[in-house]
Amino acid sequence: MTREVFGRTELAALMRPAVPALVDWIVREVWREVPVYARHGRVTRHGVECAVALFVDLVEDPLAPRDRLYETCRRLGAGEAYEGRTLDDLQVAYRVGTRAGWRWIMRVGRRHRLSSGVMARLAEMLFGYADELARMSIRGHREAQAELDGTRAGLRRRLLRLVTGPVPVTDAVLAELAAAAGWPVPAEVAAVVLESAVSPCWEPGVLADLESPQPYLLVPAPVDAGCFAALGVRAAVGPPVSPAASAHSLRWARTTLRLVAGGALPDTPVTWCAEHLTTLWLLSDSPLADQVARQELAPLTRFPDRTRRRLGETLLSWLENGGNSEKIAVDLSVHPQTVRYRVRQLKDAFGDRLDDPGARFAMQAALRASAFQSRGA
Hints:
By secondary structure, the chain is mainly alpha-helical.
């Protein structure tokens, strides 16, 4: 016959002698189902011991304090986060423990002929208890993950500012900092400068500083064009470089965005520095470019402004077209006779310098830089 009346104290007294054997059984089952926990044997056993002991205490007194076990469960969840794992393994361990616990309760029930009503209450207690423990672990995992995310975000910003700063970083230091920040170091990177901050969900391989007055990113190369075309703000993508040379890519990208804003380069949603390297080179130091133009194009200063501009255009076309009057005429949309007249003026003004390859190179560079600056103005 079943026992219809069974007091809480009496029921708990039946369970307590078998607790050590139950703990051993659950631990073995967890290690078998989730082998990773076999490497943390003491932690696993401690958690199981606390859980089983408290469950028996709750059978006797539903108001028994749970704080100690809840803290243990929170720490288990946090430990998974700190190890870089999800809660999948811990959830499996909880299911294994709950299943083993229920089988044990069924054996206790059969041995002591417990009624179906008592068994139903024990089942409700057990499965509700398991849900509570799981919720505590989830809370611990979330809290730890939030802490890690905040710490890692700060580390990633500091890493970005360091590798794009003025002092070169050694490979060893870079590898150590990148590991701490959770950044997989790519073979090549490219800096991306944004006109204003945007906050999409960047991939783990992207380092971002959106708090800077001019927000910028460091992304693995090659760069996916589609990633930035839909941002809704102007962006300049620097040339690919090694991670240690990130500062150069950032400097070129910033210069490119400044030239776009000034009109020297076409205004497009995304500007690729690699397509404008010569322009960047010529305009990387505008005052120096002005000095080169003043020195190399000094003979043109004798002419009035309008004539000087026309002769400058003709000289650049003459240099680019190897002195071919027909090509120059097409290039400038003027009559070949006009070209020949202007060329005579240039030869009178520059003399033998037009035959010097070094002087021709310097003049062509100065004229191109002046043309880009004029476009921006």
